[in-house]
Design brief:
Layout: E1 16-29, E2 33-51, H1 61-76, E3 87-93, H2 103-118, H3 125-136, H4 142-147, E4 150-156, E5 159-165, E6 172-178, H5 184-189, H6 197-216, H7 222-225, H8 232-235, H9 242-251, E7 256-259, E8 266-270, H10 275-288, E9 293-298, E10 306-307
Antiparallel strand pairs: 1-2, 1-10, 2-3, 2-4, 4-5, 6-8, 6-9, 7-8
């Protein structure tokens, strides 16, 4: 939409802000925890929001997510919603959109937290989670984006049940983000409409094992715990060399590797001693397959969304 086609500004929107919110990147699924498990990472998006300032700020896919979330808070509170051009947004992010690191959840979460705070914080943290999860279509990124740490979630309609999962010390997340993105919509379209009983039991056992391994520090169980039969094999049609890269990371010492969210970022779980080797293995194996990207090493963010 061009500047000339924006609707006329409302004269009744109260100017509010600016307010700045920092939200962590997130890595969801962790192999077998499809739509159920997610963890906040120490990589951040810093987002500033003003309402009715007379300026619009940047236009980008990320800022669009922020604006829609701001408007959702006004709708939830039955307040007159500002038009999109009345919401000034700036985004500084250490991770890109469409790479499986929860950028849409970070932007939506920031917009929700910012608008709720500007309006006097009438919504509970849990209601913000429910609104954000509804916008996302799932809660496994939104929960850690808002609350930090590792979160286990289940949705029933718009209702979300959330439990924070303590993760034993010593685990590093070693990621590789290719230069290409993977469409979440296309990836979900590839998922099977039903599973055999054998495959359902396979994933059920391993998702339970994943929770136990993370909480007890049973790192040697992580390879089995992340062995998924629901979403990673179908999604590998969009990233055919994915499992070869997993093998390279694990050969370099990683406990396990998995597709982060809907991709394209690949994530390895490792200890501090071998994290650099795993990072180098990602880059080397990718280059050998003519895949360009960046590796990074990070840990778990404990704070979630923070007002700066």
């Amino acid at each position: 939409m061009t500047a000339e086609t924006w609707p006329e500004r409302s004269d009744t929107i109260e100017p509010l802000g600016p307010i700045t919110v920092r939200v962590p990147a997130t890595s969801a699924n962790l192999g077998t925890g499809f739509d159920a498990a997610g963890v906040a990472l120490q990589r951040y998006a810093t987002i500033t929001v003003s309402v009715g300032s007379g300026n619009e700020g940047e236009r980008s896919p990320m800022s669009r997510h922020v604006r829609k979330a701001v408007r959702e808070v006004y709708r939830e509170l039955d307040r007159e919603r500002p038009d999109s051009e009345e919401i000034e947004v700036s985004v500084e992010a250490e991770f890109p959109l469409g790479r499986g690191l929860g950028a849409s959840a970070a932007c939506r979460g920031a917009g929700l937290v910012a608008a709720n705070t500007l309006l006097g914080s009438p919504l509970s943290e849990h209601r913000i989670l429910e609104i954000g999860s509804d916008l996302e279509g799932h809660a496994d990124n939104m929960a850690p984006a808002l609350f930090g740490g590792c979160q286990i979630v289940a949705m029933s309609g718009e209702q979300v049940t959330r439990v924070a999962l303590p993760v034993s010390d010593g685990l590093r997340f070693v990621g590789f983000t290719p230069s290409f993105n993977m469409s979440t919509k296309k990836g979900r379209a590839l998922l099977p409409k039903q599973l055999s009983r054998k495959d359902a039991v396979h994933n059920s056992c391993r998702s339970a094992l994943l929770v136990a391994a993370l909480t007890t520090g049973s790192w040697d169980a992580l390879k089995t715990a992340t062995d998924d039969r629901l979403h990673q094999i179908p999604r590998s049609k969009l990233f055919p060399t994915m499992f070869e890269l997993f093998e390279a990371a694990e050969s370099a010492g990683a406990f396990a590797a998995y597709l982060s969210g809907g991709g394209s970022t690949l994530m390895a779980l490792a200890n501090e001693d071998c994290a650099e080797d795993v990072s180098a293995a990602w880059v080397s194996a990718a280059a050998a397959r003519e895949i360009v990207g960046q590796a990074f090493i990070t840990g778990i963010d404990a704070g979630g969304a923070q007002i700066l």
